[in-house]
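In the previous chapter we treated chains in isolation. Here, by contrast, the input contains two separate entities that must be folded as one system, with a combined length of 263 residues.
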Amino acid sequence: MMHILGILLAAVAGFILGGLWYSPALFGHVWARESGTPETHNPDPKAQIRFFVILLVLLAATAVILSCIMMRWAGPVLWRDGLKAGALGGLLAGTVVGMDALFERKSPKLFLINAGYYLLSFCVMGVILSLL
Amino acid sequence: MHYLGIVLAALAMFALGSVWFSPVLFVRAWIRESGVDASQKPTPKAMAETFGLTLLLLLVSAAILSRFIDNWTEGEGIVHGLEVGLLGGVWVSVATGINFLFEKKSMTLFLIDAGYHLVGFAVMGVILALV
């Protein structure tokens, strides 16, 4: 049985974390510079909304997969198991982001920002899913 | 930890990558969509570094996948390996999809990369379950 509430909360947590992580206060500026994405743009509100809806759907998809893995877990799922699964899943995503960065000749900084976000948000998602 | 399976899985995904990103399959589309300047040839040393690091990253992915398949989830056999491998492939593809969304990269580029991850992780899962 999928638990919808945990998945929704995990996705929203990833969303909020991303909002902080990629904000100008943390790594937003460095990210924009290293990825070559222009910072000053005023997209129309409609496009903006569609963008964030797609983002939430993708984050929910990562939470669904994490939840699928937890459902096959050998033994009861404690918060530590959620953390373990999330951390290793985050590292797994990190290896792929690393390969992207290597072949697209992107800087190690960009890799660290992105991989750091996945590591942190998957850990948080894992814990949320194991608790709910 | 079973080292043989991990090494074989990483090598298999490496080999798959050199076919997937070859002129026979998707390298031309990949160069066009990623905007990497193909006329700027990297030095042999830089090349060796790139491929060495790639292999290292693949070893890490295989080791993580092996943890999930052998130690943490219930079930055994090829189907179990395939399922967990595919889950891992979808997982990392969605994660890169989020990056691509923000970096405004094309859908074609995403599909080329995600396809590689899906097939590669499935193959790794099967090898890890078998060896």
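The mean pLDDT of chain B is 90. Chain B has one domain: 3-36+52-130. Compare these points with the single-chain example from earlier in the chapter.
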